[in-house]
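Sequence in, structure out. Go.
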Amino acid sequence: MHLPADLPYPGNERLRLMQEVRLGLLEVAERLRQNWHAHAAAAGLSTAQVNALLSLTPGEAVPMRSLAARLDYDASNLSVLVDRLERRGLVERRPDPGDRRVKALALTPEGERLRATFWRELLEDAGPLAPLADSELEGLAVLLGVLSVGDRVGGAADPASSGSR
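Output:
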């Protein structure tokens, strides 16, 4: 991704580097998203369906409202997604033991199998990260960890995190 010529150029070298990193991360994130989508499609699933399957744990029944919160979905929109998974025999609705008015979702044996297959195939495909050497992957993991901690602590809004390292 490049900096659009018609928009203001960053005011200093640090801001230019930050913008270059932002745009680069967005480009890589898009390639990773496409790779995730391709694996989901190969399994005959949408990315939303894969995310739902991965949010469920074998042997666990999760109330629909809890699953919606895990996925950051509106509970009313989750029904259509769950209907499709249920028709394929990947999940089943069960009455919640604590409140029979509430429906809980559980993986079926076929859902567990497809979930595990998707994950195994994703793990075996380096995708967009394939060109990186082990040492580069380790360095990237450290940097991403720093960014993740920064988000929890306050990120760029935290004055302590805005200085050079």
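Check: Residues 24 and 79 are 36 Å apart (CA to CA). The first helix runs from residue 13 to 42.
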